[in-house]
Amino acid sequence: MAERETRGEDALIQATFAPLASGFPGAFGLKDDCALLTPPAGMDLVLTTDAVAEGVHFFADDAAHDIAWKALAVNVSDLVAKGARPLAYLLALSFPDRPDDAWLAGFQAGLADAQAAFGLSLAGGDTDRRPGPLSIGVTAVGAVPHGRFVQRGTAQPGDLLFLSGTLGDAALGLLLRQDRARAAQMGLDDVSARALVGRYLRPQPKLSLAPAILEFASAAMDVSDGLVKDCGRLARASGVSARIEGVRVPLSEPARTAVEHSPDLFQVVLSGGDDYEVLAAVPPDRADAFRDAAAKSGVAVAEVGQCGDGQDVTVAGRDGRALDVAGGGWDHFPS
Amino acid sequence: MAERETRGEDALIQATFAPLASGFPGAFGLKDDCALLTPPAGMDLVLTTDAVAEGVHFFADDAAHDIAWKALAVNVSDLVAKGARPLAYLLALSFPDRPDDAWLAGFQAGLADAQAAFGLSLAGGDTDRRPGPLSIGVTAVGAVPHGRFVQRGTAQPGDLLFLSGTLGDAALGLLLRQDRARAAQMGLDDVSARALVGRYLRPQPKLSLAPAILEFASAAMDVSDGLVKDCGRLARASGVSARIEGVRVPLSEPARTAVEHSPDLFQVVLSGGDDYEVLAAVPPDRADAFRDAAAKSGVAVAEVGQCGDGQDVTVAGRDGRALDVAGGGWDHFPS
After folding, report:
1. Are residues B42 and B17 in the same domain?
2. Which residues form the PurM-like C-terminal domain (chains A, B) (predicted)?
3. Which of A163, B55, B99, B297 could form a disulfide with B103 if both were Cys (CB 3.0 to 4.6 A apart)?
4. Are residues A9 and A139 in the same domain?
5. Is residue B55 part of a domain?
6. Would you tell me which residues 71-130 of chain B have a C-beta closer than 8 angstroms to some C-beta of chain A?
7. Residue B3: pLDDT above 80?
């Protein structure tokens, strides 16, 4: 049995994944079924789970390194928006067949890079084989000071809406990933096109912004299914209306070029997914302090709108006229 | 957008899953991306993740109620074996298509029943649509007194090996689920065959045994991939040898009938999976106290073997002769 074990499921776990858990004592070298987490004193724990699957969230021929990064990044993004500090994660892998060693090495390296960038460790997981797309499920655990979790549903009328980073790069990057020839239609050179594709492949959750969110935001969430849809969720959960000013939506240079070349792409910017930026509602009297804290953290934030009474979500285009956003955002179960 | 939301992904979550989270304040009605968990004072948290997928862990035509139960039970089983009390879980669902309302109602009812039986609540999750088999991933969180987590790798030479419940029912039940005509070959009437299939469909983790494991076991794990394989894992992780006496392995009446009718089925009993019983290593001087505590908890435990020096795992058959167990147990990536 021992020899068999050196080549089977347990061996795969020990060779590829146990090294990623070596910094976390409660992982027991991935030789136990469970992970042990001693909660940091005075902290609440924040848990989130998101899976990425081949053909849905990534392409079969994406680099294993990028796939691994993305699987962790999309979960860390959720934690950051709650003001939480990442601690650990569990990994649930489903392979249709055992991946080859080169793929596993790239996947391991991608996880290692993401762990280092985001400050968390592998604590446990589950590996199985089944038909269907390769799927990587992550459950991430973070810590937030007791009683300070930043909810989605606690925005107030009058709160200003801030967005971190730039919007729409990943959605435009996805279009380019699907058809590189679109770069010319978007007026983009190769460097710019590559930058947008990179934003799709490797989301960059804004970890350093978490303390500012914790201190100044009345509500926050990450933008993963498109600003229009996610802002609607924040407004609905909070019982407020929201208005987004398109002209204030921050665009990267490549995205600005693309939108100026093809104005219809602004709808993609507003409604496409995979941004993994933070949308935060901040009371007006704390807005300057939030801006200052964000600047000190090295993360750009832009005021993109405001909450109000009522329940409508309206979006003004770059020309100031209301946009039709009825279909906005990604939905796994569209009606 | 509001109307769209009443029929899409968010509506599915609100209609089917939010009621399961109503008892857990940190779930925020499933309107947030993250769940909030305030750790009980003086307790460590125990985390585990296991997925069940159609065609691998259940059949497409299994009742939705049973599928839901199994998805939770296999995770709770991991917690119980560590001496932990279940607190909450996250649910990661992947559907190839939106299931119909009757299926969702059965699935919801199965989760509700399992939550009540196991004493935990839905805290959060993730739902997406993708090709491939229906998959239900669960991450369960439990609590154990600080510093008391029962590891897999801490058995000592001389420890007695105890098994809860009876072994092999689920593996025999799976054979019957695949081909009901086997009942006659096993010498089983319809009631007995149904009982074994029920053990496959609805695992019963031994929650009430957790305090006895916590107090008396030097090491423990749940048996999910077959006793032979899982005992090997415990022995290897602990650096001990283990010997299992087949004649002591506890069998249910239907399983005993089947094995007496077809002695080869004893290999299935030893190496089949899906038992979700507890394998515990207990020092000899604590064995009586463990037996007493187990009896008071209402869970039968049987002494099935012993740990020793060295590293071999040997299994004596019901006739006392050594069995060849080189291929034993379920492996998702067999070599």
Report:
1. yes
2. 156-315
3. B99
4. yes
5. yes
6. 78-79, 81-82, 84, 90-92, 94, 98, 123-130
7. no
B94–A34 CB contact, under 8 Å: no
CB contact under 8 A, A34 and B79: yes
Average pLDDT, stretch B274-292? 98
Q: Given this model, what pLDDT does residue A6 score?
A: 39
Q: Searching chain A, which residue's CA lies closest to the CA of residue B151?
A: A32
The number of domains in chain A is 2
Radius of gyration of chain A, Cα coordinates, nearest whole angstrom: 21
**Residue at a domain's end among A145, A172, A192:** A145
- Whether B258 has its CB under 8 Å from any CB of chain A: the answer is no
Place of tokens 């998959």: B135
Residue A209 lies in a domain: yes
Tell me whether residue A329 is in a domain.
no
Among candidate residues A87, A96, A79, A100, the one with its CA nearest the CA of residue A211: A79
CB atoms within 10 A of CB B141: 27
Is A277 part of the contact surface with chain B (CB cutoff 8 Å)?
no
Distance CA A317, CA B62 (A): 50
Residue B61, pLDDT > 90, answer yes
Complex ipTM over 0.90: yes
Where among A121, A145, A169 does a domain terminate? A145
Rounded distance between C-alpha atoms, residue A93 and residue A100, angstroms:
15
B236 in the same domain as B174 = yes
Residues across chain B: 335
In a domain, A152, yes or no: no
| Residues of chain A where predicted confidence (pLDDT) is lower than 70 | 1-7, 326-335
Give kind and range of the element (H or E) at residue B241: strand B241-245
Q: Calculate mean pLDDT across residues B77-97.
A: 96
In which domain, by residue range, is B97 found? 2-145
Question: A197 and A85 in one domain?
Answer: no
